[in-house]
Structure formats: structure tokens, C-alpha cells
Amino acid sequence: MAFKYTRSREGAAIEIGMYRTDEEEIFYVRDNGVGFDMQYADKLFGVFQRLHRAEDFEGTGVGLAIVRRIILRHGGRVWAEAAVDRGATFYFTLEGTHS
Q1: Are 34 and 12 in contact (CB under 8 A)?
Q2: Which of 20, 41, 44, 88 pairs with 64 at a CA distance of 20 to 30 A?
Q3: How far is residue 93's CA from residue 65's CA, in Å, rounded to a whole number?
Q4: What angle do CA 91, 20, 77 make, to 5 degrees?
């Protein structure tokens, strides 16, 4: 996903990382791509939901729905933060990853 939404950037950057809190380990994928309006964040993980025009970015709108289903099956949670034209960060946790 990050690659698709940063390909128009001169200096595209994608960062993958993890940090720990007292309760859990949080994994993330961050990019400096086109981002999205947080007003529509609740639609991101729905099947066939698209926040960008099909002409601008290929895809069917099922990718993040599949990601959400996988993460939930592993006892985790998934969410995103973004700003239009300022990139996006997708976070997830998995049950049992905190040591």
C-alpha cells in the first residue's frame, strides 16, 4: 500500500518499525504519500471502500479489509493516522507479542 501511494513523490519514503508501550508492541508502516482525510478513516478497513479515485490508484478496495481481518484473527487491532498530501501511518498490534 505504501508504495502505491508514494510513487508520485520525488523523494518517496517508506518506514517500517515497532515500538513498545507498557501494554503492547505496536508495529507500523509510515509513508510520505498522498495521505487521506481522517474524516473518512472509519471507511478505510471496509470491503470495497476507496478514499481515492480509481483513475488515480488501481485496486479493488479489499486490501485493508483483508489486513484488518488477519490482524483481528491474531488477537490484534489495526488503525491509521494521516493527513491529505502529508502521508499516512498504519499501525497494528498482535496478541502475545509483548515481552
Answers
A1: no
A2: 20
A3: 16
A4: 35
> Is the CB of residue 78 less than 8 Å from the CB of residue 90?
yes
Tell me the residue length of the chain. Answer: 99
What is the C-alpha separation between 2 and 33, in angstroms, rounded?
7
pLDDT in tens, 3-40: 444 556 677 888 999 999 999 999 999 998 888 888 87
Cell 493516522 belongs to residue:
81
Q: Which residues contact 90 (CB under 8 A, 6 or more apart)?
A: 1, 2, 28, 29, 30, 67, 78, 79, 80
∠ CA 92-42-70, nearest 5°, is 35
41 closest CA partner among 6, 3, 89: 89
